[in-house]
Amino acid sequence: MAAIITENFRQHNADQFIESFSEAAANKYYLFIGKSTPFTSTTSGGDDNSPPTPKDDVTTEFYKWDSMLAAKLISSSDVAYVIPRRNWTNSTVYDMYEHDISSSNTTSSGAINLYDSTFHFMTSEFKVYKVLDNNAGVAYSGAEPTSTSSTPFELGGYTLQYMYTLSTSQIQKFVTSDFIPVTTNTTVSGDAVDGAVDTVRTTAGSGYTDGTYYSAIDGDGANGVVLIKVAGGAIVKQGSAGSNVFAGGTGYTFGTVDLSNVYSNTGLSSAANIGSGSGGAVQPIISPKGGHGKNAITELGGHFVMMNSKLEQAEGDDVTIANDFREVGIIKDPFNFGTTTVSTASTRRQSYAIKMASAPSSPYEIDEKITQSTTGAVGKVVEWDATRNILYYHQEQYANYGIAANGNVIAFSGANTVTGASSNAAATPSATSSENVTLAGGTTLTFSSGYANPELQPNSGKILYIENRRPISRASDQTEDIKIVVEF
């Protein structure tokens, strides 16, 4: 059995994903960062110069929770449909929109489907245009388009349809070197004509009688008329781009032109004879459902979704600025720690913390191994806050990272000394039953007998996306602008 996944299905999935970010859907998606310790061949695999490819298995999801540093909520305004970015450049050959691109009808660039073809571009003014006719595959030659006309126009030897202009907010959030956001312009959409024929393909043929003729567009629509020009016995294109369309009509989902049934006038009342030529053809190009510009998202292949999140400085003390990170991901509907309530907070800290009763003899060092000989607990330092004597740490599921000598993950607990393996720092957790500490950004962190848990319940929700990266360092004056694109 032969089958395909249609473009409509891909678009449907993208639509469903976008809709799930809405307030009505009540889903909560978080961008998370993690892995402050280096990748190694003996633990995670790979190294910091060549990060390992994440595995699509159960174990990997658990491991990501163990190394998670922080998470930030992705709002509906941080999500957008996007399409591949293609910049306008003069003297460039762009593909044209065609309704029937396939392996037997490839585009000028050789694409075998519409959405892999180069049939749209963006100008320096962030205006996006669809190419309706590329003059039989010649290079665009002329001024950069600026028109915002809602009807097709000719420029540079091409027939173009203005689609939309990016807003400043869209440019700042969703424009990358590879993608641009896509949205529908309401004016263009309102003026679109369902089933109108705006362009045709012509095959020259030979042996026809020179002259100008008109013919009806046959099919399931109405009132479509094409102009047919014959010169030197061949059918030739008309106008700078050669649309050859006199009247686009409406309602066409298929159409043909009968060269044996032509007229000398636009009203199709005076029959004419085009001659006994052969090999020529005029093929109407069928517009997308609703007409060109009715729905730019589906017309331009908006089955890509971009999520944008900015980590700004310490994000209310939840995101470390003392260490780097190597993992980026998306979690859906994680719980608050110790509950089954989906988190709604804007940011979440995900490292464990110990409030020391007093300062150690020397400061703890980031990424060093820490141990608690009394309990056998093992971990790795994420950050040492010397001002407040707070040690942030992780317990990853690797030997000497979180797994103790007996093969178990043992929690740090009690007023038992915690020792740094390389710094030789040693300090004892506070024994105060409940202690509130104001952090650098003004957030209050509550410790219970010297310990504070992460803010999200480990292994809750669903991790939807994982990416391993080279180390990304952080600083107190730094912002990371993270954009994740998902293709449906």
Question: How would you describe the overall organization of this protein?
Answer:
This protein has helices at residues 7-19, 58-67, 168-174, 186-191, 296-299; strands at 29-34, 68-74, 79-84, 120-122, 127-133, 153-155, 158-165, 179-181, 197-203, 211-216, 218-219, 225-231, 234-236, 245-247, 255-256, 262-263, 271-272, 281-286, 304-312, 325-332, 347-349, 352-355, 369-372, 377-385, 390-394, 418-420, 426-427, 435-438, 444-447, 451-452, 462-472, 479-487. It is mostly beta strands and 488 residues long. The chain has a 7-stranded antiparallel beta sheet, with no helix packed on it.
Query: Tally of extended strands?
Result: 32
- Ranges where pLDDT stays below 50 over 5 or more residues in a row are none
**Tally of DSSP helical segments:** 5
Main sheet?
7 strands, antiparallel
List the helices and strands and how they pair.
Elements: H1 7-19, E1 29-34, H2 58-67, E2 68-74, E3 79-84, E4 120-122, E5 127-133, E6 153-155, E7 158-165, H3 168-174, E8 179-181, H4 186-191, E9 197-203, E10 211-216, E11 218-219, E12 225-231, E13 234-236, E14 245-247, E15 255-256, E16 262-263, E17 271-272, E18 281-286, H5 296-299, E19 304-312, E20 325-332, E21 347-349, E22 352-355, E23 369-372, E24 377-385, E25 390-394, E26 418-420, E27 426-427, E28 435-438, E29 444-447, E30 451-452, E31 462-472, E32 479-487
